[in-house]
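Example: Type II secretion protein F.
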Amino acid sequence: MTGGVSVHAVHAAALCAGAAVWLVAMRDPGVRRARVLFVDGPVEPWRAGRWWPRLLRVRKLAVERREWWCVPVAVLLAVLGASVLPLFAGAVAVPLVRRWLHGRARRRQRERAADTVAALCGAVVGELRAGQEPGRALLAGLRECAAEGDPRARGGPGGGAWLGDAEAAVLAAARFGGDVPAALRQAAEGPGLGGLSGMAACWRVAVDGGAGLAAGLDRLEKALRADRRRREELRAQLAGAWSTVVVLALLPVAGLGLGGALGADPLRVLLHTPVGLFCLAVGVLLEAAGLFWACRIVRGGEAP
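Written out as C-alpha cells, the predicted fold is:
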C-alpha cells in the first residue's frame, strides 16, 4: 500500500511540475508573438527559450565582475585542503583583484582617449582644409569622434561622451562662438585628454596671432601619433619582462601541483601543520613583495 501511494504521489508531483512548466512557457502567448513580430524580429529556435536572456545576463555579470571568480577558486581549495584559510584568502583577494582590474581599465581608457584626441585633430584639419570655419570644423570633428566611439551616435547632434564633464562647455563654445581654448583646457583635465591643451594652444595662437590653425593641428596630430607609436614599441619591448613576472608568480602554483602529483599532499602540510602554516605565511609575504617590486620596475620602464 505504501509503495502504491508513493508511486501515485510521484506521478502526481510529476504531473504538477509538468503543468507548471507548461503554464510558465505558454504565459502571455499573444504578447510574446507580438514582440517577436514587431520588436525583436525573427528569433533563432535556440534563442527562443527563456533561458537565453538569463544566460546572457549571467555571462555579462561574469565578465563585469571577474574579481568574484576568486570565490569559487577559494571554495575549491578549501574543499581540497579541508580548511577555511582559502576562504579568508579568497575574501581578501576579491578587493585586490577588483582594484587591479579597475586600474587596468583606467589605463586602457586613458590610451583610448589619447588616440581619440589625435583622431579629433585629424578630423578638424580635414574640415578646415575643406573650407569650414573653425567652430563648425570642431563640431564636425567631435561628431565624427563620437560616432567612432559609439555607432548609435552617428547622425546625432554631435559631441562625444569621451570629453567627460566638460563636453557641454566645448560644444557650446564651438557652436555659439564662446571661448573655445578655455573649454578645451578644461576638458584636458580628464584622463588621457592632455592633448587637448595643445589643441587649445594652437587655437589661441591662431586667434590672437593669425597663424594657420590647420597647420598647427596637423603638427599636433603627428606628435600625438608619434607618441602613441613610441608607447606601443615600449610595450612590445617590455612584453618579455611581463611574461617573466607572470611565470615567476605562477611557479608556487606549479610547485603545489607537482607535489600533489607526486603524492606529497602539499595542501594538508601547508594548512594543517605548524611548520606548513609558517612556510605558507612567509611564502605569501615573499610572493607579494616580489610581485610588487617586479611590477614597480616594469611600470617604471613604461613611464614616459
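Residues 1-10, 19-29, 33-41, 150-160 have pLDDT under 50 and may be disordered.
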